[in-house]
Amino acid sequence: MSATPHTESYYAASANDTRIRPRLEEHLETDVCVIGAGYTGLSSALHLLESGFKVVVLEAARIGWGASGRNGGQIVNSYSRDIDVIEKTVGKEKGKLFGEMAFEGGRIIRERIEKYNIDCDLKNGGVFAALNQKQMGHLKAQKALWEAHGHTEQLEILDEAGIRNVVNTERYVGGMLDKSGGHIHPLNLALGEARAVESLGGKIFEDSAVLDVVEGEPAIVKTEFGQVKARFVVVAGNAYLGKLMPELMAKSMPCGTQVITTEPLSDEMAKSLLPQDYCVEDCNYLLDYFRLSGDKRLIYGGGVVYGARDPDNIKSIILPKMLQTFPQLKDVRIDFTWTGNFLLTLSRLPQVGRIGKNIYYSQGCSGHGVTYTHLAGKLIAEVLNGQATRFDAFAALPHYPFPGGHALRVPFSALGAWYYTVRDKLGI
Ligand SMILES: Cc1cc2nc3c(=O)[nH]c(=O)nc-3n(C[C@H](O)[C@H](O)[C@H](O)COP(=O)(O)OP(=O)(O)OC[C@H]3O[C@@H](n4cnc5c(N)ncnc54)[C@H](O)[C@@H]3O)c2cc1C
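# flavin-adenine dinucleotide complex -> structure
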């Protein structure tokens, strides 16, 4: 068995389940064929199985091999662009639906962990940290916005003294605590969800890259050594989908972000950095995100590489950021470094819809996807069960191709990122 191994990360090194699933080497028939075993694919599979569909999942590499098994592990509510931006696009009335759904993904994750007994180091509490007063103003507006949409219990503004109580650095002027945020071991969440899929009779094949999808009723999904005839197909390959569905390519772009992980810290050091064990992300456009692992390592991420080339100098990109936040870690060893790809859209809102009559997709949540992907799976199950309202709300969000097409989408976005980096640095 020679499935592409997981990237060498702290998560792969501490995975709960190292079983390799078989490669597809037969012809199968099923209700739904899911392409990709990240959160989008696994959440779809699980919701569909729970509502009585037969499901086959085809994964090119390993379960959670993509962003879902490599991310910062931060349960961040709402979307990569907030509800007010969506309201400007779809109007206040339709915007309400997005407001209602904004915290649902986090609840789904917790339900999954509880119901299927998934061991993935869940900790509650996420902090948005402001580097200047302008960002503080944004956080206050964000709190008011989320509360106006009914999310009233869990948010707390932190002043300068308040943020020092949750993250021991002088970088921040304040922040906002979301008690319904939190963090998880992302790969172990994906592996636990995969086990849940199998417990309900779902079949997962690894090392089974889909090479072609022949539209029709049924559709035929082909791999090198097998094929699946399915009434419905769910495309969940996100930043790793490549050219499989050419119609999805122009309006999204894979981007890399990098993560480093320290050696396990002493209890005393860990507690001094993040006394409440919350996860933290700052409010910059190109943001830093960090948290403690279950065994008290600091997991620190940041940086964006447009076009998703793998940088070979991850430590030199991320370590200075970590030491700027926590200079007290200057003598600590870095045990792991890795990169992973997320999928960016121009609007930074998810790209959702149908191809033909029976092929559904959701991708491109542009950086914050841990919660949205779990919601996406539920929405896909709803639409296949004949309840399309919520799926169609996302599907109606407009998307635009990157200017200049494939050749120019990297330079264009890099230019955009440069502009935002300068704004972040100047605090404007
Ligand atoms: C380093 C990093 C840090 C991040 N941190 C956070 C965070 O802290 N919080 C947050 O909210 N979001 C974060 N994100 C984003 C989040 O991880 C993603 O939005 C989310 O995991 C996407 O899930 P997915 O299932 O859509 O895609 P993926 O997890 O990438 O899964 C897609 C899967 O499809 C498979 N595939 C692709 N093509 C085919 C094919 N042809 N045939 C079969 N299989 C195929 C791939 O192998 C892959 O396993 C981060 C992303 C990265 C990369």
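# post-check
The CA atoms of residues 345 and 381 lie 24 Å apart.
The longest helix spans residues 405-426.
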